[in-house]
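Practice problem 4.
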């Protein structure tokens, strides 16, 4: 085992290059380590970098620790860090180690799971599972209908949070749901029957999605707030079928660029993950963005739920070019950006330039993955421009015949 002096040296070297435990961002880990080392200040009195860090953390109120956002370092990782840096006083009688309590572990996981969610149904049941010490089993389903757009970054960021919190996540590609949802009855002479089918199919789909929770053996289902009707349906009817009521986690939705929900079926309301830079620029430039309006502003929602969670670096914040590029300002909080936009200090054109810049950073590796010929063929065959779910050039009947021929033995 390494000597106490070796541990101290490693810790001192860490704070030579880093301001905080996690680098350049204050976290709960700083308060935990500060509490550990506070019982033996003589042990690091000759370590200038530890001493500087220690005095700096002492200037922050202890209550701040509970208000700090989760930054992705699990309690188990902090435990390993602090154990690695655990020290002994010169007489060797006191070993400074930190062991998280069971309550600290599950509370941390609960905070990470709830972070950036709009609503949780069944929070008590969720906490009971976390208190047991096992990871939450979550499923997220998506219908394979329209092409994927930037709104999908929101659930992806949350799924990353769930994984960091030790959850087991199942992703369901609901192709049956997609087929039923996209199917439009073509019999024009039977309009009443078509309406009847629509009502029946939508009712069946509610039941199918509710039953997914049981047959996937999950504790929770994750979705957008637009799924609330389905979630409350499941809460009401699953127990009547003898099944356990599940937990439901709901994230916000990214508004469309022209207002309303971002939809795969409305070309100008969404940004496709494979849109080239010039198309991203055109769509962002056309986006509705009224000066000083922060309540009906889809671009600010993209900043809050997509760009900040996925692009904000640990060392600093996000840059906005102001005054025609003559100066820049760094934002570490979306609330600060909202405040400046509401005051008119950030203009719509400047916000649009920022959103365009950071979205293209996110899209570069995705575009690169689809440059090969086989991937381009896949996209073109999956989403042919002449077929739009039975409402385009090809009829529903001809599409169905081709599907039947291609799947026959």
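Answer key:
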């Amino acid at each position: 085992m390494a000597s106490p002096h070796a541990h101290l040296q490693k810790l001192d070297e860490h704070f030579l290059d880093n301001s905080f435990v996690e680098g350049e961002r204050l976290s709960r880990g700083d308060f935990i380590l500060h509490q550990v080392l506070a019982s033996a200040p003589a042990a690091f009195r000759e370590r200038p970098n530890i001493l500087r860090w220690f005095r700096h953390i002492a200037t922050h109120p202890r209550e701040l620790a509970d208000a700090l956002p989760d930054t992705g370092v699990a309690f188990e990782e902090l435990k390993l860090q602090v154990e690695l840096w655990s020290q002994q006083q010169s007489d060797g009688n006191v070993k400074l180690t930190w062991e998280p309590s069971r309550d600290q572990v599950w509370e941390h996981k609960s905070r990470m799971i709830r972070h950036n969610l709009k609503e949780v149904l069944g929070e008590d049941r969720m906490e009971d599972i976390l208190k047991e010490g096992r990871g939450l089993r979550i499923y997220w389903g998506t219908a394979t209908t329209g092409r994927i757009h930037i709104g999908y970054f929101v659930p992806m960021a949350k799924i990353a949070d769930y994984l960091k919190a030790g959850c087991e996540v199942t992703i369901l590609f609901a192709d049956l749901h997609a087929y039923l949802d996209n199917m439009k009855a073509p019999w024009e002479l039977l309009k009443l029957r078509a309406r009847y089918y629509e009502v029946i199919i939508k009712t069946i789909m509610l039941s199918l999605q509710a039953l997914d929770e049981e047959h996937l053996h999950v504790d929770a289902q994750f979705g957008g707030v637009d799924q609330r009707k389905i979630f409350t349906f499941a809460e009401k009817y699953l127990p009547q079928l003898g099944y356990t009521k599940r937990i439901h986690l709901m994230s916000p939705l990214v508004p469309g660029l022209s207002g309303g929900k971002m939809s795969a079926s409305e070309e100008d309301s969404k940004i496709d993950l494979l849109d080239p830079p010039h198309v991203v620029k055109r769509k962002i430039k056309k986006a509705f963005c009224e000066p000083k309006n922060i309540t009906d502003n889809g671009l600010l929602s993209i900043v809050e739920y997509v760009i900040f969670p996925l692009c904000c670096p640990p060392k600093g914040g996000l840059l906005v070019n102001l005054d025609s590029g003559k100066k820049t300002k760094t934002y570490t909080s979306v609330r600060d950006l909202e405040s400046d936009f509401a005051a008119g200090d950030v203009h719509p054109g400047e916000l649009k330039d920022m959103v365009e810049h950071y979205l293209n950073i996110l899209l570069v590796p995705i575009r690169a993955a689809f440059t090969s010929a086989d991937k381009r063929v896949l996209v073109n065959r999956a989403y042919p421009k002449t077929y739009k779910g039975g409402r385009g050039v090809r009829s529903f009947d001809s599409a169905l015949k081709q599907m039947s021929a291609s799947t026959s033995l």
